[in-house]
Each structure stands twice: as structure tokens, then as C-alpha cells.
């Protein structure tokens, strides 16, 4: 099974152009990028399909002469998904044009505030705060015992339990008896 190098190069170019177009702020370019990605995915499935052969339900064809129907089904599914998402993006583009006479996504107030925030403020947000606990051997993230779903009690805290006494466990070789 040999794959044409031209198909692989065309597929790679379609994927690259589709990703580049989807990173733009114009919704029309996002739509074009998504269509390019859909076509690249269909071409990938065509490449993976291999050599053409007889249909699986043809009758006297040997199994090595048959075509795998799974890539064909995946291609049809990819076409339907691309069509549905393209229709949704076209509706978004139309609504954006109807409301703002442009299909370009603009920055809102929060985006501008995040962009103008300095690197030192981001470093302050990224620093972890060390919390001093009065109990250093705490094994839970909960603050108090009343909010903790599990309370760990050591044998020192329970009266009547001897730490030196052996634990009575059944012997698994003899059916649980000792």
C-alpha cells in the first residue's frame, strides 16, 4: 500500500492553513479555517483508507480484495459534522453582522484589563501562600473536624488499645482459621 506524497502534502497544507485561519478575529475567516480543517480531515481519512477494492457485501470477493468500510463511514460522518458546524457559524456571522455591522470579535473591558495587567501582578497571583497549621501531621485539606468527611484517629487517642499487642488476622491458607 503506497500513499501518494502529493496527497499528504496537500493534507498538511490544508491543516496548516485551516489552523492559521481559525486563529483570526474575523468570524468569516474562522468559518473558512473550519472548512479547510474539515476538508483536511476528509483527505486524511481518504489517505488512511488505502487501495480501493471491492465492496464488502459484493459476494465472491476475497477478504484481501475488499475495502475497509470504516473510513468511508467516518468520512460521511465528518462531512455531516462539518456541514452542521458551518451552518452554526454562518448563523453566528449573520447575527454578528446584523447587530454590529461587522463580523470581527472585539475585546471587552475584561480582556483589556487582563492585557494591561503587568507581569509583576501576575507573579504575585502565581505565588503560593504558605498556611501555618497548628497540627503539622494533618492528612486532610479540611480546616476543622466538623467539615472533614473522614476523621483519622490514631491508636494513642483511643483508650484500651495496646500498640504492642499483635493484630489477630485470619490465616488465608486455612480458610480463615488460625
Structure description:
- By secondary structure, the chain is mostly helical.
- The termini are far apart.
- The chain has five helices and no strands.
- The protein has helices at 5-22, 27-49, 69-100, 109-116, 119-126.
- The longest helix has 32 residues, at 69-100.
- It has a domain at 5-55 and 66-115: Helix Hairpins, CATH 1.10.287.
Features:
178 residues, single chain, 5 helices, mainly alpha, Helix Hairpins
Summary, kept brief:
The chain is mainly α and 178 residues long. Helix content is 50%, strand content 0%. The chain contains five helices and no strands.
Taking the sheet with the most strands, its summary is: none
Determine the CATH topology of the domain at 5-55 and 66-115: Helix Hairpins
Using only CA atoms, what is the Rg?
32 Å
Fraction in helix: 40-55%
Structural class by SSE content: mainly alpha
Supply the CATH architecture of the domain at 5-55 and 66-115: Orthogonal Bundle
Layout of helices and strands:
Layout: H1 5-22, H2 27-49, H3 69-100, H4 109-116, H5 119-126
Helix pairs in contact: 1-2, 2-3
Amino acid at each position: 500500500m503506497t500513499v501518494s506524497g502529493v496527497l499528504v502534502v496537500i493534507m498538511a497544507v490544508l491543516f496548516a492553513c485551516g489552523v492559521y485561519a481559525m486563529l483570526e478575529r474575523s468570524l468569516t475567516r474562522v468559518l473558512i479555517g473550519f472548512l479547510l480543517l474539515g476538508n483536511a480531515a476528509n483527505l486524511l481519512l481518504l489517505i488512511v483508507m488505502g487501495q480501493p477494492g471491492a465492496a464488502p457485501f459484493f459476494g465472491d470477493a476475497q477478504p484481501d480484495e475488499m475495502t475497509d468500510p470504516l473510513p468511508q463511514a467516518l468520512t460521511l460522518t465528518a462531512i455531516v459534522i462539518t456541514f452542521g458546524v458551518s451552518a452554526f457559524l454562518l448563523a453566528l456571522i449573520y447575527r454578528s453582522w446584523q447587530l454590529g455591522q461587522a463580523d470581527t470579535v472585539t475585546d471587552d473591558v475584561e480582556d483589556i484589563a487582563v492585557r494591561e495587567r503587568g507581569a509583576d501582578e501576575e507573579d504575585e497571583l502565581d505565588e503560593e501562600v504558605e498556611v501555618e497549621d497548628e497540627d503539622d501531621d494533618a492528612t486532610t485539606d479540611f480546616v476543622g473536624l466538623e467539615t472533614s468527611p473522614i476523621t483519622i484517629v490514631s491508636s494513642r487517642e483511643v483508650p484500651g488499645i495496646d500498640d504492642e499487642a499483635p493484630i489477630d488476622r485470619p490465616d488465608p491458607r486455612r480458610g480463615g482459621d488460625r
